[in-house]
Write a structure and sequence with these properties.
Elements (H helix, E strand, L loop, with lengths): L1 E7 L3 E8 L2 E9 L4 H16 L8 E5 L11 E2 L2 H12 L5 E5 L4 E7 L2 E8 L7 H11 L3 H8 L13 H13 L4 H20 L8 E4 L6 H11 L3 E2 L7 H27 L30
Parallel strand pairs: 1-4, 4-5, 6-9, 9-10
Antiparallel strand pairs: 1-2, 2-3, 6-7, 7-8
Helix pairs in contact: 2-8, 3-5, 4-6, 6-7
Length: 298
């Protein structure tokens, strides 16, 4: 059975096409403002990569921030459940998942392959991709540089503010004092790691711990988190797609339950229109594809 999982995050959209337990294609692109068109774009690209047509897909599950904006999905599942399923498939020993996205952080507890508990921070940008994008600009470096640069620090700066506005001011203050950029970056990572750790410990952290999302591509943040956790950490080969992978696995299970006649009916009623309320000119830049091998925080 050919099944797809599509995860529309606040900044990055991911899709996985699988045939039972074999991943056939995965695509990662920036979400932009037009969720429906982005959903179509990543689906088209993934189908091309897998050598399939839309009619070949038996079941499609949408997840993430924009899951309701995927008109061709057969079901919508929460990102908490999908991340848990994707990570558990990659490493069954994982008991705690720290997912660091573009706009929020999540802690997910796994027990016997099932969701046991979770906690989420979506009220503050601290620790998220958006936070690091802003701090990277303050430091005058690219987002992809902030992690590796922080690892060169010999004396991490003390950073007390994690509200984005005050963190900007504190970073600028440290730079004006002559503190090296690497030390400021390291201090920022340490402070954010402590903040994330404090959130996740509320659901009782157990090993093995997995770090997913765009934050898992930030080597400095992962290093600081591992120092704080003092536990084995698993980082998936492509930490951005665990939610989409989980959605694809769930899609496969649902397809098996529905069976042949039911799947034919689902395919018949799928909506493949890419309706949008936005003009092309308004979001042309946002619709540009993003190389999945680059470091993103989505």
């Amino acid at each position: 059975m050919f099944c797809a999982g599509i995860d529309i995050g606040s900044t990055i959209t991911k899709i996985v096409i699988a045939n039972r337990n074999e991943v056939l294609a995965s695509v990662v692109q920036r979400t932009g403002a037009q969720h429906r068109r982005r959903a179509h774009r990543v689906m088209e690209d993934a189908l091309t990569q897998a050598g399939l047509a839309t009619s070949d897909l038996d079941y499609i599950v949408a997840t993430g921030y924009g899951r309701i904006n995927v008109p061709f999905a057969d079901a919508q599942i929460t990102e908490i459940t999908c991340h848990m399923r994707g990570v558990s498939w990659l490493d069954p020993d994982v008991r705690t998942i720290i997912d660091i996205g573009g706009q929020d952080c999540k802690g997910i507890k796994v027990k016997d392959g099932r969701l046991d508990d979770f906690i989420m921070n979506d009220k503050c940008a601290a620790g998220t991709g958006r936070f690091f994008e802003i701090i990277a600009k303050v430091l005058g470096i690219d987002l992809e540089e902030i992690g590796p640069l922080s690892l060169t620090s010999k004396n991490p700066a003390e950073i007390s503010n994690l509200c984005t506005v005050f963190a900007e001011q504190e970073a600028l203050s440290r730079l004006s004092e002559g503190v090296p950029i690497a030390d400021v970056a390291a201090g920022i990572h340490r402070a954010n790691a402590s903040r994330i750790y404090g959130m996740v410990r509320k659901i009782k952290i157990e090993e093995t711990v997995a770090i997913t999302g765009g934050g898992a591509k930030n080597s400095g943040l992962c290093h600081s988190l591992q120092e704080r956790l003092q536990l084995p950490v698993f980082i998936p080969p492509e930490p951005l797609i665990t939610g989409a992978l989980g959605a694809a696995l769930i899609a496969g299970e649902k397809a098996a339950r529905v069976g042949g006649p039911g799947l034919a009916a689902l395919k018949k009623h799928r909506r493949w229109d890419a309706a949008t309320f936005f003009s092309d000119s308004a979001t042309q830049a946002a619709m540009q594809p993003t190389n999945s091998q680059h470091s993103h925080m989505g």
